[in-house]
Amino acid sequence: MSSTSLPASPRPARVVARTTHALPWALHPDVRIVWLSAVTRGAAGVFLDYDGTLTPIADRPEQATLSASTRARLARLASRCPVTIVTGRDVAVVRDFVQLDEIGYAGCHGLDIEGAAGSGLRYEAAGTLLPALDAAEADLRRGVSGIAGALVERKRYSVSTHHRLVAPGDTSLVEEVVATVARRHPELRRERGKKVFELRPDVAWDKGSAVAWLLSAMALDSGAATYIGDDETDEHAFELLDGSGVPIVVEHGDRPTSARYRVRDPREVTEVLDLLIEALALS
């Protein structure tokens, strides 16, 4: 299954009143009984962000390597239900990190989807905007060349400008460069992540749209779907599963969210994976 046409408009953004600290801790014995029962009631699927979820956030993108123990957990989980990494990274890059063919990958915030080996699942959108991304990348590299610590990372469907290593007083300079380039390329939209500004195609597609497409393509039950992520871009998937399914945010601090459960760090994510492996083996 493949497509290169632009998708339909996304769901309208919702205003949420809850914050991460108000959410139940997913690993609490009483709480995990609730969400594990949801996972085992239908055709389950597990969707996971990569950076900050399966691995700690790294200062440089290439340093976010996956541990062997987490890789083994993903392989065991994939033998029990479909597993998909949903990430802002390119599919090729995250596949090199994960090194598993039995899981699917939705890269570039869901714009580029490849199912598990043999599944035949494939979706790619916004190919006509690749020249605009090429031009924006060149503009950004020129614009931040004099700002110490600024890193420009090109992905197939986005250009990320990282400022984690930039002096605090220079962050506004990076943001100004990105804003200028965004105005120069109105077919791209600007988004903010953790210590990063991104330009990506201004099409009606996000991580939630990608999860919705995959749920339909794989005939999975949204009420039995689990999504775990830590970034603002994961909120679209949380919104999709709010009211059904198991949306879990990875966050130690407090911020608004559409998730229903929380864990504090990638170490606790591995505990969630272990619970899923055990529960799905018995269902």
Protein described:
There is one protein chain. The chain is α/β, with parallel strands linked by helices. It has 2 domains: 23-125 and 205-282, HAD superfamily/HAD-like (Rossmann fold); 127-201, Alpha-Beta Plaits (2-Layer Sandwich), CATH 3.30.70.1020. It has helices at 29-39, 68-78, 91-98, 130-143, 171-184, 207-217, 235-241, 266-282, and strands at 45-48, 83-86, 104-107, 112-114, 122-124, 151-155, 158-162, 188-193, 196-201, 225-229, 246-250, 261-263. The strands form 2 sheets. An 8-stranded mixed sheet has the order 5-4-3-2-1-10-11-12, sandwiched between helices. Helix 2 packs parallel to helix 8, helix 4 packs antiparallel against helix 5 and helix 6 (207-217) packs across helix 7. The radius of gyration is 18 Å and the shape is globular. The two termini are 29 Å apart.
